[in-house]
């Protein structure tokens, strides 16, 4: 009852604020007409404005993206209320919407399903752990749909959907553009990019080709201490190159066919990890040089790497049959991902436990996680195309995902030490068919099939009242093999299956109070497939950890009911959108480190919730001045307590504790002033702009909020350290504030922008990483330092 009252109060507050604003008299006769900058979205699979969509949606237009200097989804999230990003490096960000979060999912958990669906136009490109880091150049907009989506979208999602919408080929007019950038990071290296687009009508009115290409050099800002006292600067630099090519063929006035290919290659030479403890580099060693890390430093025996090669081919067919439109989307995705990490401290920590000599402990060890993905999807939709009060859409969706995940731990020389310490033949006896000098190996091929039928219909009861209802039927089947070998493994060889089917509904009522004020209420259900945990690496586990975590083998489906009430106000010089929501989550899938086992497990928490309010306000008080605020307050908590076999609360999963990775408060404010610059000629204008983003405190894992969770004892006597020394950390990730500033000059077909991002040089802790329960390495992922640069654009 208390939570329901709180939800009611937030909803009433949003409504009251909206009605108060709607009563305001426009403050300037110079306010630009709203139609001049109206963003058309297709969140409902029909073209409409954001203000006309009967649920909570945000859209960042191409102009928004360019003026804010956004280059990735994390930049976009600054102006999207309720969106949280965990930045684990390019190509590895994790997204949550409205506080629906399982916490940090790490690279060796391929079985966990994503909570937020991601689309490139009509093609689903979601992949758990690896949200595609798509380039934002030549996009029409980025749409964010909050809350469960499934009645309009083939793939469905439990938390929400993000859609990258590209500019389509223009059948009539030739156009081209180029953008160049150079930037330098304070204390880091220099980066930049070169991007271009060309649109060519090959047969005017019938056939057109649009090609977009880009190359980005990422500047590095993390320094690596080396064995022997050396140091390597800016080890996390990298590059991204890509190409998008789409051909639109207007076969007849009613039939349009658009084939497309997308290719992108991302290569990064390290990770944005700043360490506070490493088995080989810590303040407690005496026979090795003691080390206290500075900001943005880490220790490496081996270089690290992340690469992601993505290829997408899709075919979209639209056929106008009069009062009905037929849409077919066929897509194929191939991705090859490598996360190559320096696991020397991890392997070395096990070697200390096994009483290996120091020479074995210090062997360089490389953990190589590889993912090979092939995904085929087919979606077909029929939708009404009339002006009548009754509108409808029905569709079918099929996907076939083949995902091969593998791990190798090449550690040259390790077998000799294994046999010398544990007995001749031990290495070969535990290999289970894998090659030498790799104490851990695993192969996990996945096969996932999904079939769904979905639909939604709306009816205008009156000119002002519209009711919408929809549902989704889904049928999943998953089969996974697990094979492992090596000294650190169990020598597994097993096959597991998961399947589920069901129906998730959605109902919406929207009412136009006046021509300027619309309110809506919604109830919708979301779904996420369960799965099977990898077996614990028992040779690495303590007896206590094996007893606590050994029983978590499978985890069930996650479902949620999302209830929301929203209001949208549109006036000549401002818009105000607000929504209050309550997500009732059943069997939330939560991830924890399995203590010393170097394993992670997922399991279900019976009940949890995420409730709050989100507000987005844009205002033009006078000609040339644009102000906006996007903010959210979220209460995301467990409503159940999970206990281990000793009746102790497991990993902070206790009723009233916060869900991981979710800030309670998040707000971004932007201001820009545009003014004519007659000295450069007619049509030229200059601008100055700034944004401030504040993100509240968070926890990486639920257990981080347990008293004493930040006191780490390695238990590993090495390098003169006793192993009983305590590394004391505050695991609550502090709130942080990012300030971005820019100024520039624009013409009709060109622009120059000077910018300073993270002007105050905030060093934010974005997430916490503990390797082997903190016995091997402790570190925080961090953000990019102050960055100064210039961007030049030219259109033709």
What does this structure look like?
The protein has one domain (2-552, 559-795): TonB-dependent receptor, beta-barrel domain (Maltoporin, Chain A, Beta Barrel). By secondary structure, it is mainly beta. It starts with a helix and ends with a strand. Helices cover 9% and strands 52% of the residues. The model is unreliable at 1-36 (pLDDT under 50). It is built from eight helices and 41 strands. The strands form eight sheets. The chain has a 22-stranded antiparallel barrel. A five-stranded mixed sheet has the order 3-8-9-6-7. Strands 14-13-18 form a three-stranded mixed sheet, with no helix packed on it.
Name the helicity range: under 10%
* CATH topology descriptor: Maltoporin, Chain A
- Envelope shape: globular
The CATH superfamily name is TonB-dependent receptor, beta-barrel domain
Q: What is the architecture at the second tier of CATH?
A: Beta Barrel
- The N- and C-terminal alpha carbons lie at a distance of 61 Å
How many whole angstroms does the radius of gyration measure?
A: 27 Å
Strand residues, percent: over 45%
Biggest sheet details: 22 strands, antiparallel, barrel
pLDDT under 50 segments (min length 5)? 1-36
In the residues, how many domains can be counted?
1
**Class in CATH?**
Mainly Beta
Structural class: mainly beta
Number of helices: 8
Mean pLDDT across the residues is 88
Number of strands: 41
Key descriptive features of the protein:
single chain, about 800 residues, mainly beta, Maltoporin, Chain A, 22-stranded antiparallel β-barrel, five-stranded mixed β-sheet, 8 helices, about 10% helix, about 50% strand, disordered N terminus
């Amino acid at each position: 009852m208390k939570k329901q009252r709180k939800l009611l109060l937030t909803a009433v507050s949003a409504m009251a604020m909206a009605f108060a604003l709607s009563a305001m008299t426009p403050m300037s006769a110079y306010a630009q007409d709203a139609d001049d900058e109206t963003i058309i979205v297709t969140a409902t699979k029909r073209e409409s404005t954001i203000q006309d969509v009967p649920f909570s949606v945000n859209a960042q237009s191409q102009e928004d993206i360019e003026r804010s200097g956004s280059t990735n989804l994390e930049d976009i999230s600054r102006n999207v209320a309720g969106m949280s990003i965990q930045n684990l490096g390019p190509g590895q960000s994790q997204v949550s919407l409205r506080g629906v979060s399982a916490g940090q999912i790490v690279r060796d958990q391929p079985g966990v399903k994503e909570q937020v669906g991601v689309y490139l136009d009509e093609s689903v490109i979601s992949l758990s752990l690896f949200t595609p880091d798509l380039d934002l150049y030549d996009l029409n907009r980025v749409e964010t749909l909050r809350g469960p989506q499934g009645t309009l979208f083939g793939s469905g999602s439990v938390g929400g959907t993000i859609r990258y919408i590209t500019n389509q080929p223009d059948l009539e007019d030739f156009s081209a553009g180029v953008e160049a950038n150079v930037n330098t990071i304070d204390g880091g290296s220099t980066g930049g990019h070169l991007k271009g687009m060309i649109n060519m009508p090959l047969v005017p009115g019938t056939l057109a080709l649009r090609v977009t290409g880009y190359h980005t050099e990422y500047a590095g800002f993390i320094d690596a201490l080396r064995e022997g006292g050396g140091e390597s600067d800016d080890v996390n630099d990298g590059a991204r190159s890509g190409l998008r090519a789409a051909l639109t063929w207007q076969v007849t006035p009613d039939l349009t066919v658009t084939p497309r290919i997308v290719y992108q290659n991302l290569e990064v030479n390290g990770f944005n990890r700043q360490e506070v403890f490493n088995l080989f580099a810590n303040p407690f060693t005496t026979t090795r040089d003691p080390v206290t890390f500075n900001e943005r430093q880490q220790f490496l025996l081996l270089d690290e790497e992340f690469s992601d090669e993505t290829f997408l081919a899709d075919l979209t067919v639209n056929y106008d049959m009069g009062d009905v439109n037929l849409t077919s989307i066929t897509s194929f995705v191939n991705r090859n991902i490598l996360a190559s990490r320096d696991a020397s401290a991890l392997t070395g920590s096990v070697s200390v436990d096994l009483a290996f000599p120091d020479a074995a402990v210090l062997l360089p060890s490389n953990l190589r996680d590889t993912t090979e993905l092939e995904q085929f999807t087919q979606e077909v939709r029929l939708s009404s195309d009339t002006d009548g009060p009754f509108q409808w859409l029905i569709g079918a969706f099929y996907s076939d995902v083949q995902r091969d995940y593998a791990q190798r731990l090449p550690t040259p020389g390790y077998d000799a030490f294994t046999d010398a310490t544990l007995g001749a033949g031990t290495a070969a006896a535990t290999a289970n068919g894998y090659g030498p000098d790799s104490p851990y190996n695993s192969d996990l091929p996945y096969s996932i099939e999904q079939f769904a039928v979905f639909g939604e219909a709306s009816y205008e009861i009156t000119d002002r009242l519209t009711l919408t209802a929809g549902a989704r039927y889904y049928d999943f089947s998953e089969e996974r093999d697990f094979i492992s070998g090596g000294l650190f493994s169990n020598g597994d060889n097993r096959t597991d299956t998961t399947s589920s089917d069901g129906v998730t509904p959605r109902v919406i009522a929207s009412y136009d109070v006046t021509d300027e004020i619309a309110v809506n209420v919604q109830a919708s259900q979301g779904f996420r497939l369960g799965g099977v945990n990898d077996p614990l690496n028992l040779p690495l586990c303590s007896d206590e950890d094996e007893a606590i975590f050994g029983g978590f083998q499978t985890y069930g489906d996650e479902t949620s009911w999302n209830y929301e009430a929203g209001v949208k106000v549109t006036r000549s010089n401002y818009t105000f959108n607000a929504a209050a929501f309550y997500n009732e989550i059943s069997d939330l899938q939560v991830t924890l480190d399995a203590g010393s086992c170097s394993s992670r497990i997922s399991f279900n928490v019976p009940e949890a919730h995420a409730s709050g309010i989100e507000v987005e306000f844009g205002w033009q008080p006078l000609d040339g001045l644009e102000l906006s605020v996007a903010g959210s307050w979220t209460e995301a908590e467990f409503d159940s307590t999970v206990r281990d076999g000793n009746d102790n609360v497991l990993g902070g999963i206790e009723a009233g504790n916060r869900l991981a990775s979710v800030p309670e408060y998040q707000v971004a404010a932007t201001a820009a002033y545009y003014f004519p610059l007659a000295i450069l000629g007619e049509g030229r204008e200059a601008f100055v702009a700034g944004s401030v983003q504040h993100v509240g405190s968070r926890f990486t894992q639920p257990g981080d909020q347990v008293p004493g969770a930040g006191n780490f004892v390695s238990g590993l006597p090495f390098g003169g350290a006793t192993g009983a020394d305590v590394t004391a950390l505050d695991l609550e990730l502090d709130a942080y504030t990012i300030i971005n500033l820019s100024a520039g000059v624009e013409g009709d077909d060109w622009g120059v922008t000077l910018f300073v991002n993270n002007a105050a040089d905030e060093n934010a802790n974005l997430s916490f990483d503990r390797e082997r329960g903190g016995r091997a390495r402790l570190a925080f992922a961090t953000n990019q330092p102050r960055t100064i640069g210039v961007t030049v654009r030219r259109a033709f």
